[in-house]
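Many introductory courses stop at the sequence. We go one step further.
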Amino acid sequence: MSLQVVTLAWMLIECSVALFAAWQARSVSLLAFGSDSLVEVISAGVVLLQFTPRFRISQLRAAQFCGSLLYALAGVVFVIAIAGLLHRVEADTSKLGIAITGGALLLMPLLAQKKRAIAAQTGNKALRADSVQSATCAYLAALTLAGLLLRDASGPHWIDQAAALLAVPILIVEARRARRGYGCSCC
C-alpha cells in the first residue's frame, strides 16, 4: 500500500510539472507524457481502493480498469500527436520537461519492478496491471526525453509529434496485456 502512496505522490508531481512544461513549450510529446501521468494517478488510486474497506473493488475489475486506462491513453496520445502534426505545432526547448522525463526514466522502472514483485507474491492482478502502467510511463519518458533532446538540437518541427506517435503501439500492446492481467512483456 505504501508503494501506491509513493506512486501517487510522484505521479501528481510528474503530472503537474509535465503538463506545465507542455503548456510552456507547446510540446505535444510532453502533453502526452503528462496525460500518461494523470492516467497513472487514476490507476494507482484504483489499486488503492482495493485496500479501502469502504470502497472495495475486485482485483479483476481493477485490473480491467487499469488496462482500459492504457487504451484510453493510446487514443489520447494519437489524437494529440496527429493534431500537432496537422497544425504544425513546433515545440520550444523545455529544460523543465527534460528534467521531469529524466527523473521519471530513473524512478518508474524501479516502481514497476517493485510492483511486479509484490503482485507476484500476492497474486494481485490489479497491482500487476498497474506495474505495466509504471513501465509504460518509463517508455514514454524515454521517448519524450529523446524527442525533447533531438528537438533541442534543432531537429525538425515534427520530431516532438513523432516521439509521441512512437509510443502508441507500445501502449496498445501493454493495454491488452494489462486487461488480461499479465505483467509487462518488455521489461
